[in-house]
Amino acid sequence: MGDAFIRHIELLGYEKRFFPSQHYVYMFLVKWNDLSEKVVYRRFTEIYEFHKALKEMFPIESGDINIENRIIPHLPAPKWFDGQRSTENRQGTLAEYCYTLVNLPPKISRCLHVVNFFKVRHEDMNPVTDSQIKKPEVFLLPKDSKKNLTDITGPIVLQTYRAIADYEKSSTSEMALKAGDMVDVVEKSENGWWFCQLKNKRGWVPAAYLEPMDGPDESEEQEPNYAGEAYVVQKSYTAVEEDELTLKEGDTIEVIHKLLDGWWVIRKDETTGYYPSMYLQKAGEVNTSVKSELRNRGAPPRRSTIRNAKSIHKQGRKKISQETYRRNSKRYIQNQRNMRGNAQNKANVIIEKNEPEDNKPKAQPAVPPRPSKDLILNRCTESTRRKIL
């Protein structure tokens, strides 16, 4: 019998688990070429890491070389906070992703990377449980939702994070932490303050003090976008570190990298640096009382200022230097200028080619040399010979 491959993958729903901490897994029914059917459970972070590795294995089909050649489907990265809308969209997108994945050319859909990821694992057959904690809750998709992917709803994911250092709260809305405390994150705000719960306590905690249980969370951070998004400064800030920027209220800037700790890399003209995201507002958005109230709170601490050699962020985090931001940003701006210049030159060339023919000087015919006397006597008629005699 030939190598195993997957005939079909169906998203069944999701399961809410409570051990070792509260988390969610997606349930898939995997149908194999030997007609066997297995149910496997995967976290969304696992699926996203699988997706990134698949793109690296097939750069042409992922559109890295030419976007027109892309056939590998898109899969959005995990977000800071999964609200109701993003939660609903995720499972529908995931169902479509699996359907497209199985129908890709065999060199992709039947490669070992795909086959091994969906193979049954030991924990799929024997999930870890604890008798003192309530059993997992299963949420199956209704049959109608399987036919209409836009109706699929998903869970709100509560992840468990570890405190990497002691934190003393500075207001009643915050929560103090001790190094090693395990907290469940209820809300991840992109301003760098996360709302967490620890036993019977709840409050805001700087994201810089938290790290996930299973590894660095680079997958949650977006890649730099050197095209930039237009934002307006809503509150002035004076730089403390040399890699930060000093801006005044009303300044217009471009955000090129959104980081989890709430300190974003921004570009002002051709200068880049860090700035508190809570003092920024997307251009065109309306200011609200909630946003204004948040800005009255101090900026969260930067992750780079927390000294803890044992933190996994020190081991696996991909830190981009400010010089790299500046160099790539200037390169992007220069490329855009060159593209605009080339487009203008091309337009001028086309105009020149389309000029009317009347405006161009016409070529004059060459005058043939006069034949010699001997040639006329030898070759011409009698009447022509008389004229030269």
Automatic annotation (TrEMBL):
One of its GO terms (cellular component) is NADPH oxidase complex. GO terms for molecular function: phosphatidylinositol binding; superoxide-generating NADPH oxidase activator activity. Residues 156-215, 226-285 form the SH3 domain. Gene3D superfamilies: Phox-like domain (3.30.1520.10), SH3 Domains (2.30.30.40). The keyword Protein transport does not apply. Keywords: Cytoplasm, Phosphoprotein, Repeat, SH3 domain. Residues 352-375 are annotated as: Disordered. Residues 4-125 form the PX domain. It is found in: Cytoplasm. It comes from the Eukaryota. CDD domains: PX_p47phox, SH3_p47phox_1, SH3_p47phox_2. Its main location: cytoplasm. GO terms for biological process: respiratory burst; superoxide anion generation. Residues 352-361 have a biased composition (Basic and acidic residues). PROSITE patterns: PX, SH3. This is NCF1 factor. It comes from Aegithalos caudatus (Long-tailed tit).
